[in-house]
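Worked example 3. Consider a protein that binds manganese (II) ion.
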Amino acid sequence: MKELSLFFLGGLLMIVSCYQQQETSETTKKNTQKVSAIFPKGNKGSDQFFTGNAYNYGLVMDTTLTTIAGNVYFEPGARSNWHTHPGGQILIITDGVGYHQIEGEPIQIINKGDAVTCPPNTRHWHGASHDVALQQLYIVPNIEKGVVDWMEAVTNEQYDQVLNK
Ligand code: MN
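Given these inputs, the predicted complex is written out as structure tokens:
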């Protein structure tokens, strides 16, 4: 049961919902780029940790490797809350366009084929771009230290900072 509950935690990691309107969608031109999936879409979860719609599909939960991995599909405008991973995180982008921000640094635009890392216990968020969805694989190592610590939502003002470049 410990393994099951760990896996569930992994699922929670990237889960979702919430139908919050994005103010910027009216002012930005819609991009019709198609984003394709390698894995099943997965499950939409709680809106406590995400703004917009994101879907988690768990792939690996290994207590020997102390690592979880899975895929998250973020609809345009969707993103995680601010959070930290006690053991750090690797993201591998398999399609679409998204944003990744480590607190105190500019928003990083992430595209298909990119891989980005986040050090342990470092506040950050990630999600889709304003107009193009994102398919991202997450790898969370060292889960014996914990999987994720959730914090407050990323505001529209923070999310829209990427438009001011
Ligand atoms: Mn993360």
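Take a moment to read the result before moving on. The pocket of manganese (II) ion is lined by residues 83, 85, 89, 118, 124, 126 (CB under 6 Å). The helical segments are 2-13, 156-159.
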